[in-house]
Write a structure and sequence with these properties.
This protein is an all-alpha fold. The chain has helices at 7-16, 18-27, 38-48, 53-67, 72-85, 90-104, 110-115, 118-126, 133-142, 155-165, 172-182, 186-197. Helices cover 59% and strands 0% of the residues. The radius of gyration is 18 Å and the shape is elongated.
Length: 229
């Protein structure tokens, strides 16, 4: 299953931003995989922090092969030591079991999260151990399919914006200017900034001073390095 967007979002973004319109026409529709199960999405994101997509997939496959169904009961039955044996760190195993315990005892209501506003959902998700604001924003986009997610904490989005708009730096004030312009469809716009940052249009360059370029590497794994699908 892919993030759901179409002509409504595309036509709106193109009408609001000529430079982004050119990017959209060059790249075309982006198929970006999502996981609509909130429980597994939280676990996926905890596992995937600061490791490669391949390593994340390997750990997840080991969990599925061993546990079968992955839910609060199977996670808690496995325990921290078993989870760690799949290849994740001890801390991540602790975060995952803490999350599973909260779901099992009702302290964290998965169904209620779907009913909350973006800001409310981000606040509740980021209160979980191992989940920060940026990770919560990614869950809103790649699990809950919220249409207006735009993360200032995502270095690849900032890189893509520098490349599209030829800025040396995207500070918060400038970022919010673009958020206002692209709302209420910032999620679809984010897909294109990620694609540009990952090299979807090879001749485009990053206008940031060279000393800051390495900082952009961190989120390329999470954002798929322009992988469309």
């Amino acid at each position: 299953m892919y993030f759901n967007y179409g002509e409504t979002e595309i036509n709106y973004l193109k009408s609001k931003d000529k430079k982004l319109a050119e990017i959209i026409d060059r790249i075309g529709h982006i198929d970006r995989e999502i996981d609509t199960d909130l429980f597994s999405s939280v676990i996926h994101h905890i596992i995937g922090q600061q490791i490669s997509t391949k390593a994340q997939a390997t750990i997840w496959r080991r969990m599925q092969d061993t546990l079968g169904v992955i839910n609060a009961d199977t996670i808690l039955t496995a325990g921290v030591d078993k989870l760690q044996s799949f290849g994740m760190t001890f801390k991540k195993a602790e975060y995952i079991t803490d999350f599973a315990a909260k779901v099992q005892n009702g302290a964290f209501d998965l169904e209620e999260i779907w009913k909350k506003s973006d800001d409310e959902a981000i606040a509740e998700l980021s209160a979980l151990q191992g989940i920060g604001v940026w990770t919560a924003e990614m869950i809103l986009l790649f699990c809950m399919q919220r249409p207006n997610v735009f993360s200032y904490g995502d270095l690849a989005i900032l890189r893509g914006m520098r490349m599209v708009y030829h800025h040396r730096k995207i500070d918060r004030k400038l970022f919010e200017k673009y958020r206002r312009r692209l709302s209420p469809y910032c999620s679809a716009a984010s897909l294109y900034f990620w694609a540009v940052a990952g090299g979807a249009i090879p001749e485009m360059k990053d206008y940031a001073p060279k000393r800051s370029n390495k900082k952009n590497e961190y989120t390329r794994k999470i954002t798929g390095n322009s992988k469309q699908g």
